[in-house]
Amino acid sequence: MHEMSVALSVADQVEQAARAHGATGVERVRLDIGELAGVVPDSLHFCFELVCAGTLLDGAELLVRAVPGRASCTPCGREWATGMPPDLTCPGCRSAATALPAGRELTITEVRWARPPAPAPAPIPHREEN
Amino acid sequence: MCRTVDLKQAVLAKNSMAARILRTELTARGTTVVNLLSSPGSGKTALLERELRLARERGTSVAALTADLATENDAVRLARSGVPVKQVLTDGLCHLEADMLAGHLHDWLPEETRLLFVENVGNLVCPASYDLGESLRVVLASVTEGEDKPLKYPAAFGLAHLVIVTKSDLAAPAEFDEDAFRAHVERVNPGVEVVLTSVRTGEGAGVLVDRALRAAEGDAVHAPVMARA
């Protein structure tokens, strides 16, 4: 269950980015998680909520985009869905896939900061009655 | 202030960076790291006991670090080989990370170590995601675990440089289908070498030390498709 470690890494990086941008809160974090990244999104949601509690990310929404695995074969020019469990042998020439263009992502793609709190209304001058 | 920013940051970037630094530092001093992954009970420790003894007999300077949630049993077993051994207790954590390993090596790893074997926590899920700065990643599976293990744990098997089958002396009673196992490994990691071993019969003796030394000498290791993202 390394989703806790993954959630901590996400929270750390977003918090650093927030400080760099002068943000005081985080509304939303978007992640890409590849089919072959070995991370369970449900479990990550649970851990993310726990690690964010009491931090600058408290209440931030986690949006996960699942990225299907895709492999490619340069000699054949083919690209195919790897499936799960993945098949990394080219369906055309039966040689090993040349590359895995998608499916191993574990990336923070976008962060939306929370709206800064509205400034407190200026106090109305108080005049002593004589 | 623009409220939405594109970060495009790899979540495990910090670990990857720590692993790269560790690999560079250790390679510079002549130490090569071998990361051993398997499910609990597949025989990592038994195989390591044999390989450490063999390495010592051959005069290769080796050391081993073993990680478990609890007990020092594995370190006690490995220390019988007479090589430097360190037990790391992870206090419940299911995997090792590069900065943890670096911290444990800091004041322990003997300077002359040629090969450092790291026995990861017994788990085929989480350790797969963490580069430890190794030059050789080895995944083990015993014949009693079933031929479909590579399909159930594709990341672990898919990122391995070498696959070792353990307890081959039990292949017949366990009705282990070697061809099916090899086909499943090939599906998730085409081209990776699969070697059968048994500490009882001596099958495959020295394979781990041999492949680790080749990697240490700069021979190209297998490049898994899954690592070509």
TrEMBL record, chain A:
Chain residues that bind Zn(2+): 73, 76, 90, 93
Record's keyword annotation contains Protein biosynthesis: no
Domain of life the protein comes from: Bacteria
One annotated GO molecular function: nickel cation binding
GO biological process: protein maturation
Residues reported to bind Ni(2+): 2
Transmembrane segments: none
InterPro entries for the chain: Hydgase_Ni_incorp_HypA/HybF_CS, HypA/HybF
Keywords (A to Z) from UniProt: Metal-binding, Nickel, Zinc
Pfam families, per database record: HypA
Zinc found in the keyword field: yes
Assigned protein family: Belongs to the HypA/HybF family.
Biological role: Involved in the maturation of [NiFe] hydrogenases. Required for nickel insertion into the metal center of the hydrogenase.
NCBIfam families attached to this UniProt entry: hypA (TIGR00100)
Protein name: Hydrogenase maturation factor HypA
Native organism: Streptomyces tagetis
Lineage, highest ranks first: Bacteria, Bacillati, Actinomycetota, Actinomycetes, Kitasatosporales
Gene: hypA
UniProtKB/TrEMBL annotation, chain B:
Superkingdom of this protein's organism: Bacteria
Family under the similarity heading: Belongs to the SIMIBI class G3E GTPase family. HypB/HupM subfamily.
Biological process, per Gene Ontology: protein maturation
Protein name per its UniProtKB record: Hydrogenase nickel incorporation protein HypB
Domain CobW/HypB/UreG nucleotide-binding residues, every copy: 33-195
One Gene Ontology MF term: nickel cation binding
Keywords assigned: GTP-binding, Hydrolase, Metal-binding, Nickel, Nucleotide-binding, Zinc
InterPro entries per the UniProt record, alphabetical: CobW/HypB/UreG_nucleotide-bd, Hyd_mat_HypB, P-loop_NTPase
Phylogenetic lineage: Bacteria, Bacillati, Actinomycetota, Actinomycetes, Kitasatosporales
